[in-house]
Amino acid sequence: MDFREAKNTAGETDGLVVLVPHVPEEYGIIVAVREVYMTVRLKPELAKFIDEQVKSGQFKSVDDAVNGAVARAQIEEDLLSSDIDDEDLAAIEEGLAQLKRGEAIPWEQVRAELEKKCRSK
């Protein structure tokens, strides 16, 4: 198999296309998307926290940690900007009641279960 850069309509590289023998190039499969690079300046205590998270194995790299934080902020923003119905409020209240009763599940366990569920799809 061969690869070539995939270009968007502006002529920018969007990823890679797998070129499969005997299949026209326009039917190639895009296997990677374009990443945006930027410089971010962090407060020393935030940089230290990220370094600790990477060293503990919580994230594979500083990039993964920052991407994870921004993704969580985006999810939070989406949740806050959406309407919360009665069912959502009831679920939140039940979760808070479970926490008060000491029925919390450690984040590490939840994360492992979610990763397992995602990998099985």
Tell me the major beta sheet.
Answer: 3 strands, antiparallel
Query: How many discrete domains?
Result: 2
Q: What distance separates the N and C termini?
A: 26 Å
As laid out across the biggest beta sheet, the strand order is: 1-2-3
The SSE string, one letter per element, is EEEHHHH
Determine the structural class based on helices, strands and strand pairing.
Answer: alpha+beta
Broad shape:
extended
The percent range for strand residues is 5-15%
Q: Mean pLDDT, rounded to whole units?
A: 76
Helical amount? 40-55%
Q: Give the tally of β-strands.
A: 3
Q: Radius of gyration, rounded?
A: 21 Å
Helix count, DSSP H or I runs of 4 or more residues: 4
Task: Please characterize this protein's 3D structure.
This protein has 121 residues and is of the alpha+beta class. The chain has two domains: 2-33, no CATH class; 44-105, no CATH class. Helix content is 50%, strand content 15%. It is built from four helices and three strands, in the order E-E-E-H-H-H-H. The protein has helices spanning 44-55, 62-81, 86-100, 107-119, and strands at residues 2-7, 13-19, 29-33. A three-stranded antiparallel beta sheet has the order 1-2-3, with no helix packed on it. The longest helix has 20 residues, at 62-81. The two termini are 26 Å apart. Residues 27-32 have low confidence and may be disordered.
